[in-house]
Amino acid sequence: MHSVMLRANALVTFSVAILALMCAMASLSDYLNSPSPTAQVQVLNVYRFQKKRNGDDEVSLTFNISANLQSVFTWNTKQVFVFLAAEYGTPKNALNQVYRS
Ligand SMILES: *[C@@H]1O[C@H](CO)[C@@H](O)[C@H](O)[C@H]1NC(C)=O
């Protein structure tokens, strides 16, 4: 009646059921999490604003960046990319963007 194969079958079935339950709970916990990172950027000083001969603009400035990324880090976070984008308009181009990560 309670052969080795039956016991092994019950053990494997129970293990797979627990694994499926844990997977469902992990997916649900990630689905319910809604991260709300906040950031403030303040330009402290503009040292230089220069138009280069090749048409590029060069700016040297300092920022004060305060960011709270705590809510982004969960058990499921592998990597977080943070970058700063400066957007400005000129008569020639309506939208110019500069990125720095
Ligand atoms: C930068 O900002 C933080 C708060 O956002 C402030 O406490 C700190 O004094 C500022 N630092 C400078 C150098 O302005």
Brief synopsis:
The chain has one helix and four strands.
Structure description:
By secondary structure, the protein is α+β, with helices and mostly antiparallel strands. It folds into two domains: 1-32; 35-101, no CATH class. The protein is 29% helix and 36% strand. It has one helix at residues 4-32, and strands spanning 38-51, 57-68, 84-88, 96-100. It has a two-stranded antiparallel ribbon with strand order 1-2. Strand 1 (38-51) and strand 2 form a beta hairpin. The radius of gyration is 27 Å and the shape is rod-shaped. The termini are far apart. Residues 40, 44, 64, 66 line the site of 2-acetamido-2-deoxy-beta-D-glucopyranose.
Features:
single chain, binds 2-acetamido-2-deoxy-beta-D-glucopyranose, 101 residues
Helix and strand succession?
A: HEEEE
Q: Indicate the percent of residues in helices.
A: 25-40%
Mean pLDDT: 90
Instruction: Count every beta strand, where a strand is a DSSP E run of 2 or more residues.
Output: 4
Outline the secondary-structure elements.
Layout: H1 4-32, E1 38-51, E2 57-68, E3 84-88, E4 96-100
Antiparallel strand pairs: 1-2, 3-4
This protein binds 2-acetamido-2-deoxy-beta-D-glucopyranose.
2-acetamido-2-deoxy-beta-D-glucopyranose (NAG) is lined by residues 40, 44, 64, 66.
